Amino acid sequence: HLGSSSQSSNGPVKKSMREKAVERRNVNKEHNSNFKAGYIPIDEDRLHKTGLRGRKGNLAICVIVLLFILAVINLIITLVIWAVIRIGPNGCDSMEFHESGLLRFKQVSDMGVIHPLYKSTVGGRRNENLVITGNNQPIVFQQGTTKLSVGKNKTSITSDTGMQFFDPRTQNILFSTDYETHEFHLPSGVKSLNVQKASTERITSNATSDLNIKVGGRAIVRGNEGVFIMGKTIQFHMGGNMELKAENSIILNGTVMVSTNRLPSSSSGDQFGGDDWVRYKLCMCADGTLFRVQVTGQNMGCQTSDNPCGDLY
């Protein structure tokens, strides 16, 4: 029959052109509808894992966050430096650096602590003042143990070795604490000196002015070999008591006047020996030596068996 396959004993079955086309179309149709072609099901837990997972992933995230924070801080510091120093296309607008090592500030600068290098100098421009201001705090200049503090109400200088002020133009010493070569003199224009404790051989004033020593509390004047007070007129004004102590004697040479307004006195009705009070009379020798005599009765003089005046009395 025409159009049918014929089979011979010596070879395969021969197909017609129409049968081959139908078979090819069926195979293509089957392949196009088979989406699982080449798929082999495998357990994912048995596969080799790649990438950062688990603790490594968390650590990587922490590192990234830390780097981001450091980048933000670095950006803030850069912006602050740029705003303070004012770096522009023409260089730094707030300061200048010179080859000689000079650092010049071209505008008002806000600083906390300045540490100059060895043998450094801090100064202002020619014909301009150098203004240093502390915001509600004193300005302190310190070199070793020497310290100069400038506050709102006072200026103090502290030094263990001494201090010296001199004119930078003439090099003349205006004020010095080198007492071994010269006496201590107050600078011109200084009227008073405020100290807590002073150790000196003598204190004098000018011939045309008075020497006034004033204290707010208690004043102690002590001499290892005695205290000598000399002057045309010597006056003591105390709000409390005055105590004179001496190992040997107290000598007053000159006219001595004592105001009795504030001295304690007994009334006319008191009888000596009627109470527990012990009274003494202050007596003075011709050479100014003072001594006391116990009062045992009214109108009693300075007669005593232990007379310090000797034959001069």
TrEMBL record:
It is a single-pass type II membrane protein. It is found in: Cell membrane, Sarcolemma; Cytoplasm, Cytoskeleton. Component of the sarcoglycan complex, a subcomplex of the dystrophin-glycoprotein complex which forms a link between the F-actin cytoskeleton and the extracellular matrix. This is Beta-sarcoglycan. Cross-link to form 2 major subcomplexes: one consisting of SGCB, SGCD and SGCG and the other consisting of SGCB and SGCD. The association between SGCB and SGCG is particularly strong while SGCA is loosely associated with the other sarcoglycans. It comes from Bos taurus (Bovine). Pfam families: Sarcoglycan_1. PANTHER family: BETA-SARCOGLYCAN, SARCOGLYCANS. The keyword Transferase does not apply. GO terms for biological process: muscle organ development. Residues 1-11 have a biased composition (Polar residues). The chain crosses the membrane at residues 59-85. Residues 1-27 are annotated as: Disordered. Coiled coil: none annotated. One of its GO terms (cellular component) is sarcolemma. Belongs to the sarcoglycan beta/delta/gamma/zeta family. Residues 16-27 have a biased composition (Basic and acidic residues). Keywords: Cell membrane, Cytoplasm, Cytoskeleton, Disulfide bond, Glycoprotein, Membrane, Signal-anchor, Transmembrane, Transmembrane helix.
